Amino acid sequence: MMKSKKVAELLKVCRGKSPLLILPHNHPDPDSLAGSWALQYLLEQSDGIASTIAYGGVLGREENRTFKKQLHIEAVRLRSTHFKKFSSIALIDCQPGGGNVSLPSDRRPLIVIDHHPRRKNAQADFVDIQPDCGATSTILVEYLHAARITVPPLLATALYYALISETQHLGRDVTNRDIRASTFLFPLIRHRLISRIEHPVHSREFFQQLYTSMGKTFTYKSFVGARLGEIYYPSFVAQLADMLVSLQRATWCLVTGRYRKTLHLSLRTTHTRARAGHILRKVIGRRGSAGGHEMIAGGQIKLAGMTAEERNELEEMIFQRFYRELGLPENLKPNPLVVEHRFTQGRTQIHTGENTDPHRSPQPGKRIY
Ligand SMILES: [Mn+2]
Fold first, then answer.
1. Among 33, 145, 170, 316, which one has the highest count of C-beta atoms within 10 angstroms of its own C-beta?
2. Is residue 73 a contact partner of residue 44, using CB atoms and an 8 Å limit?
3. Which residues have a Cβ under 8 Å from the Cβ of 265 and sit 6 or more positions away?
4. What is the CA radius of gyration of the chain?
5. 2-198 adopts what CATH topology?
6. Ligand 1 mean position to 205 CA, how many Å?
7. CA dist., res. 24 & res. 54, Å (int)
8. 136: CA distance to ligand 1 center in Å?
9. Ligand 1 centroid to 16 CA: how many Å?
10. Where are the alpha helices (DSSP H) in the chain?
11. 201: DSSP letter
12. pTM of the model
């Protein structure tokens, strides 16, 4: 039906264009990696079209590293030579000019497949943008299904994990199409691998990052936020935002962190129709770029050439604009989420007197007993 027509159109566009370069977004998450792999598999199986998956940025989050390793996903780090070598490019889970993909501005991609709201400059020979899907992987599952291609277990597992991680087990920004796609995949997946990816081994740095982050987290009525400063991998802002928005009575969460001269922002809300992506784009404006859905959004701002003071002012302003957007009073003092406490003879003593300014990090070297 509709979908098989779309697949025929896709294959027609790719004819004679082999090999292709497939680009997930920078610092890729399971949805963009699984989507890329599914496109690679579809093209290879139906028309023998070869492709290379290359990602900009880093795979930081342990879940994502375990995901790539356990499922044997052949994706390499993107180099500038890739753009010389490949004349045809496919963007998966991102769009040209989105700010989260390392596509040179003078290159027009051959293919764009995404589920984020359409950007003005989303120009390509084949464009399939469906904000109606909770994940890009859903679109690719529909293609594989329409092309009557048998999905091998590891690819099925990748696509299924992408769906459940992107939608928090089909509960956030999800539609019937995502549920249908996951039902289709379910009998094909390796359950033990899903469990292994979802519960990865964490490095000591992760706990260190978590510990310092708690000291930088503050609440402001129903808002919870954190300004993390330097972070050790960019997707940590999203990971922490997911965690913090689960705070009792919190309805909004914004986390910011710096990684290699870029400020990464992650927004979450418990409201199912809050247009988080729209709000974050409005708050960031022309200073950077953002994208997202109803309940989740992400963005980035380039910080190159800015002094520490200018960076600080910028972040301060982002938060102020955000409070205004939510109608929160601006004269309110934020409260720290956690305070140092000591356990004395089974009793908890809470120290609130010092370091109550949550924008300041806890004093270095201070230990919690
Ligand atoms: Mn996605």
1. 33
2. no
3. 237, 254, 255, 256, 280, 284, 290, 298, 299, 300, 301, 318
4. 22
5. inorganic pyrophosphatase (n-terminal core) (3.90.1640)
6. 27
7. 7
8. 5
9. 29
10. 2-14, 30-47, 62-70, 80-85, 136-146, 153-166, 176-185, 191-198, 204-214, 236-244, 276-284, 308-326
11. P
12. 0.89
Q: Compute the distance from residue 20 Cα to the ligand 1 centre, in Å.
A: 21
- Ligand 1 center from residue 106 Cα (angstroms): 25
CA of 32 to the centre of ligand 1 (A): 6
The distance of Cα 46 from the centroid of its chain, to the nearest Å, equals: 30
Q: Distance, CA 322 to ligand 1 centroid (Å)?
A: 24
CA neighbor of 151 nearest in space, from 111, 195, 182:
182
The residues placing their C-beta within 5 Å of ligand 1, an ion, are 31, 93, 136
Residue 45 CA, ligand 1 centroid: distance in Å: 24
CA of 234 to the centre of ligand 1 (A): 16
Token reading at 218 = 């503050």
**Centroid of ligand 1 to alpha carbon of 320 (angstroms):** 28
CA 141 to ligand 1 center in whole angstroms: 13
CA of 367 to the centre of ligand 1 (A): 39
Which residues, listed in sequence order, are joined to residue 23 by a DSSP beta bridge?
A: 91
Q: How close is the Cα of 238 to the center of ligand 1, in Å?
A: 13
Structure tokens at 333: 């003092």
Cα separation, 356 vs 360, whole angstroms: 8
Q: Domain limits of the chain? A: 2-198, 204-336
- Looking at domain 204-336, its CATH class is alpha beta
How far, in Å, is the centroid of ligand 1 from the Cα of 352? 41
Distance 131 CA to ligand 1 centre (A): 10
